[in-house]
Specification:
2 copies of one chain form a homodimer. The first copy, chain A, has 146 residues and is α+β, with helices and mostly antiparallel strands. Chain A has 2 domains: 1-88, Orthogonal Bundle (Arc Repressor Mutant, subunit A), CATH 1.10.10.10; 90-146, 2-Layer Sandwich (Dna Ligase, domain 1). Helices cover 43% and strands 20% of the residues of chain A. Chain A contains 6 helices and 5 strands, in the order ααααββββαβα. The first copy, chain A, has a 3-stranded mixed sheet with strand order 4-3-5. Chain A has a two-stranded antiparallel sheet with strand order 1-2. The two termini of chain A are 33 Å apart. Chain A binds chain B through residues 75-76, 80-81, 95, 97-98, 104, 106, 108-109, 111, 114-115, 117-119, 121-138, 141, and chain B through 75-76, 80-81, 95, 97-98, 104, 106, 108-109, 111, 114-115, 117-119, 121-138, 141. The first copy, chain A, binds a DNA duplex (30 and 30 nucleotides) through helix 4.
Chain lengths: 146, 146
DNA sequence: TGTGTAATTGAAAACGTTTTTCATTTACAC
DNA sequence: GTGTAAATGAAAAACGTTTTCAATTACACA
């Protein structure tokens, strides 16, 4: 279950942000899509129903949503700034289709042992990790079996 | 052990690339540094000994080295295009200090079980993964213990 | 239900990074 | 040496992103 629009709106309010139609539109665009979207993608989607919106506003809204942890960034595929809705609370990772960009989530990742070993070997205090798998999704495999 | 300059030069030749002084300079700049460098960082370093070089050439050389797999990209820390020398042959990952940018390598990563499970659950055919840890390196921890 | 105010917006311009273009130069096979 | 295709550097274009600023707007409070 994703953050509901309601939940996001109340979070924005709680943090002192105003709820403008533009922000709602950006929110909807991201929530409606299961893929990761670049700022430009989001701008294009939003403009269909909200022609006057500025790209700046999209950027500003994305910054806020990212800062509040309501959306998260995806890094794979050369593209360095795409966003997805974030599932509530839980730490998770992405599986990204290298052909169509479809994204699947998973939560499993137990690095405790590896982190302990790395910490011992390198002297690093490990704070976080970035894990993404890439591959071909079900649909793309059916479309062109390799 | 990193790729030696000799090894890299022969690889370039084998692939039909010419060995220009500019390419050597870029190569040296990356090889001399243990950190990850952005194209601009590399440009700055190279210009000290090779003032006439153009930023374009740095970019072009990085593209080639990346395509040949002689250097690799680092993603963490918001910065989306930094390069490191690549260790020969082996698959490896990075541990990146969030304070000073120091990089440590490690090779361990056994995702066979997780990949199998993900494949079964999502229908993805998994081709690769991106794994990076972030944390505070030995030096930074000593400098300002938290 | 108004009203005041600080937050938000959009347009334009600035900015940094990366790519393209093109005439000149250069590494290397012969 | 010489010829040729590849590589270079300068300039300009093309991106993506941020800053600036005057005008607008959401919302707390009366």
């Amino acid at each position: 279950m994703q953050f509901t629009e309601k939940k996001i709106e109340s979070t924005l309010r709680r943090e002192g942000y105003k709820l403008t139609p533009q922000r709602r539109a950006v929110l909807n665009a991201i929530a409606d899509s299961h893929d990761h979207l670049t700022p430009a993608d989001i701008y294009d989607k939003v403009r269909q129903e909200h022609p006057g919106i500025g790209l700046v506003t999209v950027y500003r809204t994305l910054d806020i949503l990212d800062k509040l942890g309501l959306i998260c960034e995806v890094h794979s595929g050369g593209n360095c700034r795409s966003y997805l809705m974030r599932r509530p609370q839980e730490h998770h990772h992405h599986l990204i289709c290298s052909e169509c960009g479809a994204v699947a989530d998973f939560t499993e990742c137990d690095f405790s042992e590896l982190e302990h070993r790395l910490s011992r070997d390198t002297g690093f205090e490990i704070e976080g990790h970035l894990l993404e798998f890439s591959g071909r999704c079900h649909n793309c495999r059916k479309a062109t079996p390799s």
